[in-house]
Write a structure and sequence with these properties.
Two copies of one chain form a homodimer. With 306 residues, chain A is mainly β. Chain A has one domain. Helices cover 11% and strands 58% of the residues of chain A. Chains A, B: It comes from Acetobacterium bakii.
């Protein structure tokens, strides 16, 4: 792994050395390091690029790291990762992606298709951080597709973050929830320059007392554009909530299109969205306390996203 | 005008006799009574079915009644009405539509395309009530298209109500707002049986300090289906708010798809939507006070819609 890849690895997954337990590190479309643990087995797919991550029932408090790195221009990575989470398991998955195109004029992209099959009463915390780095004209593109199937009583929390350097992203997250399954999604997106980001969600609450809570916070700076689309279907007794708050700066453009459909009398669905610039009085308050305009802005954005 | 038409007229516009001032009453695709006033002129269109309503500048506190009635089955009415509101005018327009198919097996429909051109600083209150009546299998369909163009400083308030008897409706309301123009839309919709209702809005705030406030309240009973779609574009310094609250009962299905897009840093846009059934504690409270289940339900629905 070269210095660029090491830097990316640290940024997206916090890793400075190989972790304990299970991991798979992918660089430029190839697995470059892998380890299974007693409870978590990682095996290559035979029919296409990617891995199966098989978590034994009752596995507790283990981490799985599966960062993907693209460390040069001209790479078009496509990977299929499937997660099979055994009953009653309770684990954390760290899955970031960093794309560096250096000073290359060739763009690079990473397309990751992740599927999650959560067994009964299992719990997963999924943390995903996307960044792009490079000074050349090559575009950095990350298009993640995430499909989640949750069995009875399972819980999944997804924390996804894209803060900088990704020129274009199309995110698509799809979930199907059985009885008592709960899904929490926290998304943070910041775009700048002339970047484009689309984030699309589709959640079917098929099981009684299932619930979804979808919270998206985004900031669009410069000439960047963002579209947030969510579709929540309440098909039985269930509770759905979606919330999209966006701050626009400079010439940023944000659209929010949240769709909620109650197909059952016992579905309760709520969504909220607000788009606007930083409130003037907040700026004034911080500047009165001695911050410059830039510092005040940074502080507000930081507080908003965290 | 026969008894059915008289009854419809009373229901949709509150009229029991011909009003003072300007009016046009349409029955089964024909104008059956018309009167212009000194300040409000009503003239037939020459190229198609419909009327132009021309309101002189500075006209104050006048009413215009333009109810449309369909009093039998087999009628397919299509009408184009254009309203030209002079500068500084301040008027009320009562425009309801009643469709009765009696015991006919033939359906009837009314398609009204209304365009409003509001002059500078003019004010319009537009009240529209839609009902359907009939015991036959003939479907009653009302599809209104409303286009609004608001000059600087104008104000329009639309109150639209569809409470019962309309088997299918597709409503489309479109508005373009210049500087300081304000638009308030209050929609009430109740569907029952296997009725279908779609209500679509598209508002462009092109002028500085323009604003739109869109409030939709709906109730879907039995097997009825409703779709609410709103699209609010903030293209400059402006404020947009949309709110869609729906109560579902029995097997009713409601979708809400509000889209907000900030194309300007100075646009502030908010939307909220909530779909659910009548809260149990509200029912219990009213039943504790001596109301039957049916009475309690009726009271809650009534309060919600009014």
């Amino acid at each position: 792994m070269n210095e660029i890849a090491k830097e990316l690895l640290k940024e997206v997954s916090g890793l400075e050395e190989m972790p304990k337990g299970a991991y798979n590190i992918r660089e430029n479309s190839k697995s470059i390091a892998r380890q299974s643990s007693e409870n978590i087995e990682i095996v290559s797919k035979e029919d296409k690029s990617g891995i199966d991550i098989i978590v034994k029932p009752n596995t507790k408090s283990e981490h799985v790291f599966i960062p993907a790195l693209v460390s040069c221009g001209g790479v078009h990575d496509l990977v299929y990762n499937d997660f099979f989470i055994g009953e009653n398991a309770d684990i954390i998955i760290i899955a970031g992606c960093g794309v560096s195109t250096g000073d290359s004029c060739d763009g690079s992209e990473h397309n990751g298709i992740h599927r999650f099959f959560l067994g009964k009463n299992s719990r997963v915390r999924y943390v995903e951080k996307h960044i792009g780095v490079g000074i050349g004209t090559g575009k950095r593109v990350i298009n993640p597709v995430t499909e989640v199937e949750q069995e009875e009583g399972s819980f999944m929390e997804m924390e996804t973050t894209q803060i900088k350097g990704v020129d274009s992203t199309r995110r698509f997250t799809k979930a199907k929830l059985k009885d008592n399954a709960k899904l929490v999604i926290k998304e943070k997106l910041m775009t700048h320059g002339d970047q484009f980001a689309e984030s699309k969600f589709e959640v079917d609450m098929d099981g009684e007392d299932s619930s979804v809570n979808l919270i998206s916070r985004s900031v669009a700076r410069d000439y960047s554009r963002q579209t947030f689309i969510s579709k929540i279907n309440g098909n039985t007794r269930c509770v759905g909530h979606s919330e999209c708050d966006a701050i626009i700066m400079d010439h940023g453009v944000v659209s929010a299109i949240p769709e909620i459909t109650a197909n059952s009398l016992d579905a309760t669905l709520i969504h909220e969205a607000a788009i606007g610039k930083i409130a003037g009085d907040q700026m004034i308050k911080l500047m009165t306390l001695g911050l410059t305009e830039g510092e005040a802005e940074a502080k507000i954005i930081d507080g908003f996203l965290n």
